[in-house]
Write a structure and sequence with these properties.
Elements lengths: L2 H32 L2 H13 L1
Helix pairs in contact: 1-2
Length: 50
């Protein structure tokens, strides 16, 4: 793969990770607002993995 293609893949991967993080933060906020301790724990574990 050439440099431009690799750069594009890197950008896509970074964008994907940022989107995952943003959605996860939103889900965590909702879980906290609902007082769902089990879901909070699961989402916090997921945050540590990404």
């Amino acid at each position: 793969m050439n440099r431009i293609g690799q750069r594009n893949l890197t950008k896509v991967a970074e964008t994907h990770r940022a989107n995952l993080h943003k959605r996860l933060l939103h889900r965590l906020d909702v879980a906290k607002a609902n007082g769902d301790e089990n879901l909070i724990r699961i989402l916090e574990d997921e945050m540590r993995q990404i």
